[in-house]
Structure formats: C-alpha cells, structure tokens
Design goal:
The protein has 3 domains: 20-122, Alpha-helical ferredoxin (Fumarate Reductase Iron-sulfur Protein, Chain B, domain 2, Orthogonal Bundle); 138-232 and 382-447, FAD/NAD(P)-binding domain, CATH 3.50.50; 247-377, FAD/NAD(P)-binding domain. Helix content is 36%, strand content 18%. The protein has helices spanning 10-16, 26-35, 43-47, 54-62, 66-76, 80-86, 93-96, 109-122, 146-157, 174-177, 186-197, 215-221, 250-258, 278-289, 310-318, 385-388, 420-423, 428-447, and strands spanning 138-142, 161-166, 202-205, 224-227, 247-249, 270-274, 294-298, 322-324, 327-335, 338-352, 358-362, 368-371, 374-377, 396-397, 400-401, 415-417. Strands 3-2-1-4-16 form a 5-stranded parallel beta sheet, with helices on both faces. A 5-stranded parallel beta sheet has the order 5-13-6-7-8. Strands 9, 10, 11 and 12 form a 4-stranded antiparallel beta sheet that branches. A hairpin with a 5-residue loop joins strand 10 (338-352) and strand 11. The longest helix is centred in the C-terminal third of the chain and has 20 residues, at 428-447. The chain is globular, with a radius of gyration of 23 Å. The relative contact order is 0.14. The structure holds iron/sulfur cluster (SF4). Iron/sulfur cluster (SF4) is lined by residues 36-39, 42-44, 54-55, 97-99, 107, 109.
C-alpha cells in the first residue's frame, strides 16, 4: 500500500473496538424481564429459527433463576452467546415482539439472553445436561462452525462418540473468525467451543478433510458424517487490475482484525469496500476504526436494494462511511503494482430479473475515478464446490448441498449437512438450528428412531 493510515495508540484501538452493546446490570435485566407480557402465543419464539422458549427464559430472569434461564436457552440453542450478541434481533425475535404493534420499544431479548448466558459462563458452566451412556456409534463432523458445534453437542448428549475436524487453528468458524470485535470478541466464541468439548466431543483442529485425512478414511471411521463447511472464498470481480497490491478479501481482512492485534493490521488512508452486505459494513467500519481517513462503500444498486440490515447501515453512517450507490467498479488502476485509483461507472436500474430485482445497467460515458489506497472486496462467497465434489453421490444445486429439511440428510444417505453450505450464507442462528436438526436426523438414520 502506498498511503498507509498512521497507527493509533493502544488506548485508541481499545476505545474504537470496545463493545457497542453493553451488558445489562442486574437491576436493568430484572426490570426489562418484568416488562415481558409472557404472550401465550409467543411470536418472538416463532420468529427465532431455534425456537427458544423466550417467554420462559425471560420469566426465569425476572425471578433471578439464571441457571434455569440458561438451561431453557441452551436446550434450544448451543450457540446462544454468539446469537445473543450477533443475531439481527430486529428482524427476528425482537422484530416479532408484540410491543412493536403497540408502538413501544420491543423487549430486548438479545441482551436478556446474553445476561443469562454470560452468567452461565462466568459461573464456570455449571452442569445442566448429562450425556446419555455411550451407544457405540461414531459421527464425524467436517467443520467446527456453529452448525457443526450444535450438531456435535446434541449428538454427544445422545451418547454418540463425536469428532469434529477443523482446518483452522481455532474452532468456532465465522463466530471466531468473522464477527466484528465491537459486536463480540472471539473469546466468546471459544467459550461455546469449550461447552461442546465438555460433553466429550473431540475437536481436531488443523485437519483439512481431503488433504490431511481422506474422505475414504473419514467414512471408514464414522457411522455418519455431518458437513458444516460453510462457504469458500469470494468470487473475482472480473475487472482489470484485480491482482494489484492493496486488493483485499473482506473475510480475510475481518479475520486479521478479529484476533485483536490491531496495530499489526495495515489499513490505507482511503479505503473502498465493494459490496453493501453486512460483511461489507463490518469491513468498512473496521477499516475506519483502524484509522482509515476516508472509507467508501461502492454498491451497484440503490439504497433500498442494499442487502445490509438497517441497523448495520445506520452504524456505518454513524462511523462516517460514505456510500456510493448505483456505482460499479470498472477498472482498478495502479502505480508500481499498487492500487492507486478505481475507475467506476454510474448505473441505473433496469427491468426486473427472474427474482424480481431490477438489474443494474451502466450509464454510457458516466465513468469517473476515485483515488484509493486499499480496496476490500465483499461481494459474497463462492460455494465450496471443489471440496463437495470429493463426496460421492452428493447432490448440489447452484453449489449448495441439497438436503431433506426435516432430517438434513443429503442425497448420500451417510452424509447430513447444515449452515451456509446448504443455504448460501444466512445467520449463525440458522446454522445452530440446522446442526441440531441434523443430529436428530442422524439418530433416526442410525437407530431408525
Ligand atoms: Fe415477551 Fe415480546 Fe415475546 Fe411477548 S412477544 S413474550 S412481550 S418478548
């Protein structure tokens, strides 16, 4: 990079990356819990993909039975701390809370869940569940992300011998490596990994299936296998200049920031993020918090089509991120092999595609240049097709593994799957729900129950 932003002081980094959602105090939690109406039809519970019994766990907080509250939460969701901190609650449980209809602030379900689960971890994870005696069957899990961990926990409690194979050096998947530190620290994700290990699950990190252990060996070792591999790297932009120094992938950038060694992460003075999803917003706000002077988001559609949640958009605006809507990168121009500026073109929305989204079309002769020192690409991730192709008879559609949604079984009966590799990239809570459902699908496959 030609123009690096100056490094900040340790105090400035700490301040910039401090948690934006503070934990409830005891009085605040009890007061908030007492606002809950304990609705008989719990719309909040229906809106949660893991269907946590929300009114019951909140009621237990109101009576200060935090152990019981944590148990109610964990019975439905093994990834409850990450979900409490990183779930888009405004479009899930809190978005469904009846208080919205009354024009009042919904119950802060996410913060209450965090209050109960924080208590559980702070108190050394008191025993709430007892694994069943070993049933002599073994399950292998590929990937220690939220779906793999949830599947492993559930199976271990049913008496299975469970081994998770994870290529990276730390387990947790995107919960460990891909969540902005001002939302959640990677240490929180590792607490959930520990919880799963406490049930007797073995986690082998640094093991890539297909490289360090063959698919055939994996199949020989286990009676069933769960695929929770998530997605692959970002696709190419397919424009000239993409190979210049100063080009970065959003998830790789976020991963460096997540490890909290902020001063070791170089950031340009002028940063452009291409894409406007939630990951793009994370990358943009992290670049700004690392000291970038100017951070821009370049998006080819308009504000109303941007995939990022409203809350994320507001956060980015508060951080001073500049949005270039209806703008597409056309060429990246460098000097001495390093990114220097980006040629963009203005777009207009044309006719709707098969999904009903209006297709952006370039406006002829509307090119303009933006000076940049660093470009972060955040245009989604490719399916892990190369890895998946190693598994025989595994049906995929548009790169996504096809499953029976009741059991999560794939077209190869020994394999089950969940999380981003089946849905193309949804929330942690969807992965947690998939993993749990798959565990019961595996139990049905093995024991016919
Ligand atoms: Fe409580 Fe709101 Fe859920 Fe009703 S919808 S049970 S008020 S959190």
């Amino acid at each position: 990079m030609n123009n690096l932003a100056p490094k900040l002081t340790p105090d400035q980094y700490e301040k910039n990356f401090s948690e934006i959602h503070l934990a409830f105090t005891r009085n605040q939690a009890v007061a908030e819990a007492n606002r809950c109406l304990y609705c008989y039809d719990s719309p909040c519970m229906k809106a949660c993909p893991t269907h946590i019994d929300i009114s019951t766990f909140i009621k237990k907080i109101a009576t200060e039975n935090l152990k019981g509250s944590a148990k109610t939460i964990l019975e439905s969701n093994w990834i409850a701390l990450t979900c409490a901190k990183a779930c888009p609650v405004e479009v899930l449980c809190e978005g469904a809370c009846v208080y919205n209809e009354r024009g009042e602030k919904p119950i802060e379900i996410g913060r209450l869940q965090r209050y109960a689960i924080d208590w559980y971890f702070k108190h050394g994870m008191p025993q709430l569940f007892t694994p069943a005696p070993k049933n002599g069957k073994s399950v292998g899990i590929i990937g220690a992300g939220p779906s793999g961990l949830a599947c492993a926990a559930e199976l271990a409690l049913m008496g299975y011998d469970v081994t998770i194979y994870e290529g990276k050096k730390l387990a947790g998947g995107l919960d460990t490596w891909g969540i902005a530190p001002y939302k959640m620290s990677y240490e929180d994700s590792l607490k959930e990994v520990k919880l799963v290990e406490n049930f007797g699950v073995k986690i082998k990190t640094g093991v890539w299936i297909g490289e360090d252990l063959s698919i055939q060996d994996l199949e020989r070792r286990h009676d069933a296998i769960f695929i929770g591999v998530g997605l692959d790297t970002s696709p190419d932009l397919k424009i000239p200049g993409e190979d210049l120094k100063g080009m970065h992938d959003a998830l790789e950038f976020i991963e460096k920031v997540t490890t909290r060694k902020w001063s070791s992460v170089d950031v340009g003075k002028r940063v452009a993020v291409i894409g406007a999803g939630n990951t793009a917003i994370d990358a943009a706000t992290e670049a700004k918090r690392l000291g970038a002077e100017q951070v821009m988001i370049i998006y080819r559609r308009s504000e109303s089509e941007m995939p990022a949640y409203h809350y994320e958009y507001e956060l980015a605006k508060q951080d001073g991120i500049v949005f270039y809507f209806l703008t597409a990168p056309k060429k990246i121009i460098g000097s001495n092999g390093v990114v220097e500026r980006m040629e963009c073109i203005k777009m207009k929305l044309g006719t709707p595609d098969v999904k009903g989204r209006r297709v952006p079309e370039p406006i002829p002769s509307s090119e303009f240049h933006i000076p940049v020192d660093m470009i972060i690409k955040s245009i989604g991730q490719k399916p892990a097709e190369q890895f998946l192709s190693q598994i025989s008879n595994l049906k995929t559609q548009n790169g996504k593994v096809v499953v029976d949604f009741e059991t999560m079984q794939t077209s190869n009966p020994k394999y089950f799957a969940g999380g981003d590799c089946i849905n193309g990239g949804k929330e942690v809570v969807n992965a947690a729900a998939d993993g749990k459902r798959a565990a019961h699908g595996i139990d049905k496959f093995i024991f016919g129950k």
